[in-house]
Amino acid sequence: MTAPGSEKRRSVTKIALAGNPNVGKTVLFNALTGANQKVANYPGVTVERKSGRLRDTGRNGIPPVEVVDLPGCYSLNPRSIDERIAHDVLVGNQAGETPPDAVICVVDATNLERNLYLVTQVLDLGIPSVLALNMMDAADAAGLQIDVDALAEALGIPVIPMAARAGEGIREVRQAVLEQATVSPPVGWPVREDVETEVAALAESLRSEWAQIDPRRVRFEVFASLTSDVLLDGWAERAPNFRAEVLAARERMEAENVPFQMAETMGRYGWVSPLVERIVRRDRSGTADSLSDRVDSVLIHRIYGPLIFAGVLLLIFQAVFTWAVPAMDLIEWSVNGAGEAIRSLMPDGLFEDILVEGALTGVGNVIVFLPQILILFFFLGLMEDTGYMARTAFIMDRAMRRFGLSGASVVPLLSAYACAIPGIMAARTLPDERDRIITIMVVPLQGCSARLPVYVLFIGAFIPAGTLMGVVGYQSLAMTSLYFLGTGMAFVAAWVLGKFVFKGEGSSFVMELPPYRMPQWKLVIRRMIDRSRVFVVRAGKIIFGLSILLWLLAAYPKTPLTPDLEARQTAAAAAVEQASETGDASALEEAMAEASLAENQVASFRTRNSFIGRFGRALEPVMQPLGFDWKISAGIVASFAAREVIVSALATIYSAGADADEESLALRDAIKADRYPDGTPVFTPLVAVSLMIFFVFALQCMSTLAIARRELNSWFWPTVMWVYMFGLAYLFSLVVYQGGLALGWG
Amino acid sequence: MTTTLDQLKPGQSARIDSFTAAAGPRLLELGLLPGTLVEVVRLAPLGDPMDLRVRGFHLSLRKQEAAQIVVTPS
Q1: Between chain B's N and C termini, which has fewer beta carbons within 10 Å?
Q2: For A472, phi and psi rounded to 5 degrees?
């Protein structure tokens, strides 16, 4: 199987894996690198850079070999970000990246024609290559017989049959890429004559103007410049004459209606199609991917399809909201335990406070969502790996398009019911950039689980427990309405964005429906861990810092206590001491209760005079039209980084004790009992509704902003996101509160 | 007799003649070229998009995009 044309090679230190999506590249990558992997992003873009060290290299005197898994793509003509990265890495244009010494082209043996299209492009770059002919087992099952030797001869590179999922052929591929990777002789694909004349002239021009170009790549670059403005502009400085000539040639051919844009594609397929016809024999007719077809006739059936999809979603939600609870409780318990342990071990003081109240609580706020996120990413990975994800988009596209979204927006939107972060990250599967941005922009409106504590607190305190006509509880009705409000607004916002911001930009939905595959559990779990790590690290860093800052703002400046408070505190402490000396149990209990009450009063006083308290009081005039006093305003400020913080913030302000949670009766009672100086209650049901509506819309979540910035690679959209969501929150709360007052519901 | 791809019923196949508007380069790269055989396998539950079989793989395409592809039913 060794092909002719082998030449002297440098030793291989870097291998790239290139191939279409869904061809098993990642499986091969995992098999080649084992646990030595790094997942990062290419600088400035959201494309994952997966690299690893080839197994058994980099030790025992064997020099290390790096393996890079290029993003899956159908072509090297850079139209999408993925394609641009793959192209730039291969030709050595990617900043901070040395070009690979050898390429493994991974192809799906059941789908050779389309796969070989990309291979011809890679071969034209003149990099030593081998072909990994993957999914040979599936090809066998489909009755396809492939003449491997003839394929190797036609391509001029070694061809290794492989079934990566079954672990077959991996060793051979490894050996081949290290020892036999070959620069293929130029693939002579045909080009229509009128285009060929122009291309030949342009090639000559490029060669003379930029002499150091690899002669193998000249034609590739000419075709790329003819079809891609991005690549053409890349020559503006190095070869300005060439660029001008390409523009002129384009104009000439356009004037004569020469379909030069198609010429390269037609030419390559004109070479690939007869080759595939020659080397692939079908044993049985029409059995290719028939099992997958039969599965599809159920899973995307007109009636069963949507029902099954609904069932799958129900299962996922059940898992996220029920199965995650014990783990979340355990995390909360551990964080509290760790806090107590630190408190008991460390001397009292500022540093201890920062560590426990700021840092530990902040970290706890993030990792408490980890179980939900892990479960969600597990199911998302499973759906992707089996090929079901593409079907959900297929089923939902028509319905979603009405709102300017795409079928592929469904999964991100639904994930966001658990947390906006997996939702935003799941938007990566959207093939269209416009759809992806719109989806990310509206995902945070979905009612995430961090809003739940806020809803629980205020619904529990202000919505009566009765039922509507004996069937639906008012409380659950209120809860459902809040979720509907968020989701409804997400669709409206998507429609507005599509109609007015991205107007005229048509979205497209050209998407492969890959054959179903059995899930690769290891791969699914690894992906789940990788993605969750991104969440923990990214969100964690920001929340961590911000929590410390917010804690400092809530704890400082330390205003001296009023003489009254100070006296009460001292008296209470003395009473406790006295009671414990006399050993009177009931007196001790009483004294302890009074002491804790005094402590809470002190805490409340301190918060009122802290920076956050002052800020809340400064904000009060702005928030008053929504029905919010300084305490609620301060709570909103405090929960800027994470919504659920408002519960503990209010608990502190209302002196219900910092460890009160959303179900705590003390906090509910304190809130209900609060009065303005004139005796009117601070919290009426109307204020509670106004506040909940505020939380439906406002983007009180630093992690969301951080991930959105990462995924959109700019602060522009996250800023727009925060502003429009805050605007909605303010507007809706204002209308509800003022409208309610006018109707006499105050 | 030519028509556009979106007019085909599930089970029908056709050969591509040409593209009316500037068909996306993506379609070309995926192998939808003049002369290529395309089969409509099924429609999505709401009637759109279409599930096509081209060169041995399945491709989903909205009718709006399929309407830009002129075909000869076979």
Answers
A1: N
A2: -95, 130
Select the highest-mean-pLDDT range: A74-78, A168-172, A259-263, A513-517: A168-172
Q: Which residues contact A324 (CB under 8 A, 6 or more apart)?
A: A371, A372, A375
Domains of chain A, by residue range, sit at 14-179, 193-257
Nearest to A509 among B25, B29, B49 (CB): B49
Q: Do A663 and A458 touch, CB atoms closer than 8 A?
A: no
Establish if B60 touches chain A: CB-CB under 8 angstroms. yes
Residues of A in contact with B30 (CB under 8 A): 74, 114, 510, 512
Burial of A354 (0-12, 13-18, 19+ CB in 10 A): middle
Q: With the C-alpha atoms ordered A579, A585, A587, A592, is the resulting torsion angle positive or negative? A: positive
Q: How many other CB atoms are found less than 10 A from the CB of residue A726?
A: 15
> Does residue B39 sit at the A interface (CB-CB below 8 Å)?
no
Instruction: Report the CATH number at residue B7.
Output: 2.30.30.90
CA distance A260 to A273: 20
Nearest chain B residue (CA) to A298 = B45
In A, residues 293-322, which contact B (CB 8 Å cutoff)? Answer: 293, 296-297, 300-303, 305-306
Question: Contact at 8 Å (CB) between A108 and A25?
Answer: no
Å between A385 CA and nearest CA of chain B: 17
Whether domain A14-179 has CATH 3.30.460.90: the reply is: no
CA distance A307 to A300: 10
Residue B49 near chain A (CB below 8 Å): yes
According to DSSP, residue A561 is labeled P
Where are the alpha helices (H) located in A556-610, listed in sequence order?
563-582, 585-609
**What values do phi and psi take at A76, rounded to 5?**
-100, 0
CB pair distance less than 8 Å for A513 and B60: yes
Which of A230, A265, A285 would you mutate first to test chain B, the one with the most B CBs within 10 A?
A265
Whether A510 sits inside 8 A of B58 (CB atoms) is no
When divided into structural domains, chain B yields a total of 1
Provide the domain limits for residue B60: 3-73
How far B28 CA sits from the closest chain A CA (Å)? 6
pLDDT tens digits for A74-106? 998 877 778 888 998 998 888 888 999 999 999
